[in-house]
TrEMBL record:
Single GO MF annotation: calcium ion binding
Sorted UniProt keywords: Cell outer membrane, Membrane, Signal
GO cellular component: cell outer membrane
Cellular localization per UniProt: Cell outer membrane
Range of residues in the leader sequence: 1-20
Record bears the keyword Membrane: yes
Protein name stated in the entry: OmpA family protein
Organism: Shewanella amazonensis (strain ATCC BAA-1098 / SB2B)
UniProt domain OmpA-like: residue ranges: 71-187
Length: 187
């Protein structure tokens, strides 16, 4: 067989679609597999072509600075805490999901936030006070810059090592004490 003929046949095969697959709604799922034809453009879909439901954030149910649940419809609030590595004031990447949830949850509420910085008991009292202030300030900056919470709605406080939530005689306890607690200030 003529080698030029082989190249021509091969080029023709490669340039023409062997199996034309239709995807009329453009969701990336072929029509013959699409259980939900007509999915709106831009929707994220499952393998069957149906939209993945976008869930709303769970309602906020946090503690106020007076240790009451907020909003009043909550029976029990929680203190939202951001945890830090030893000696660090860098807001961990994992905290972004919590902060995003918080920002979305309070975006229509007329409340402010109180950020209380804490440390474990390793180091001097003065150094721990400064570190806890820096942690609170960094969480405040993240909320303002990354999640559009106005700075006027954020207050910070530094407590150093004075308010542990766990014993400081184990690494696990010290890790629980290296934190910023976020409380609601109702206006």
């Amino acid at each position: 067989m003529n080698p030029w003929l082989c190249v021509g046949v091969l080029a023709g095969l490669l340039s023409s679609p062997l199996h034309a697959v239709s995807d009329k709604d453009g969701d990336g799922v072929p029509d013959f597999k699409d259980a939900c034809p007509g999915t709106p453009v831009g929707n994220t879909v499952e393998a069957n072509g149906c939209s993945i439901p976008v869930s709303a954030p769970a309602p906020v149910c946090l503690m106020t600075s007076q240790m009451n649940p907020y909003p009043s419809s909550c029976h029990q609030g929680e203190i939202l805490s951001i945890y830090f590595d030893f000696g660090s004031a860098f807001v961990p990447f994992e905290a972004a999901a919590k902060l995003a949830w918080l920002a979305k949850s309070i975006e229509t509420d007329h409340v402010s936030l109180l950020l209380q910085g804490h440390t474990d008991d390793i180091g001097t009292e003065a150094a721990n006070y400064r570190l806890s202030a820096e942690r609170a300030d960094n969480v405040a900056a993240s909320l303002a810059m990354d999640f559009a919470i106005p700075k006027a709605r954020i207050t910070t406080a530094s407590f150093g090592e004075s308010m542990p939530v766990a014993p400081n005689n184990t690494e696990i306890g010290r890790q629980q004490n290296r934190r910023v607690d976020i409380l609601i200030l109702v206006e």
